[in-house]
Write a structure and sequence with these properties.
Distance between the termini: 73 Å
Radius of gyration: 21 Å
Strand content: 25-35%
CATH topology: OB fold (Dihydrolipoamide Acetyltransferase, E2P)
Number of domains: 1
CATH superfamily: Nucleic acid-binding proteins
CATH class: Mainly Beta
Number of helices: 5
Helix content: 25-40%
Largest sheet: 5 strands, mixed, barrel
CATH architecture: Beta Barrel
Amino acid sequence: MRPKFLVGGLIILAAVIYLIVSATQSNAEYFLTVRQVREQGEQAVGRNLRVSGAVIGDTIQYDAETLSLRFDIADIPGDNAAIEAQGGLAEVLHQAVLDPTRPRLTVVYVGPRPDLLQNEAQAIVTGRLGEDGIFYADEVLLKCPTRYEESLPGQAGNE
């Protein structure tokens, strides 16, 4: 009787492992730069992606009635060491926005306009690349470089 239980247990264990692996792979998000998304082309279409780039302020379009937001992001390095070597995040974002030769990606998001959405902010968008080459974001996170932090009001207890 023990061999039957052992074989049955192994089959159940194999099925559970298969289900975990297949669910993890189908829901995995790949963190990429704008350049990497462009280089992948058709391979990136339809996959869950997280992409980081510099917001190009002139491209921001927001419709308050439909909550539709559209903007472009420019490629920035994905490696923190490379960012520091180029003068820090503020400098990298500034140079990315000024350089028209850098790869760019149009982002479309439906939802309230984020407060920190402005020129040269770092956008981290999560969503899928459409067949039309537009990135349809489910989530938009924004980081502003440290030079914007000086203009923020003091927080309670930090004054």
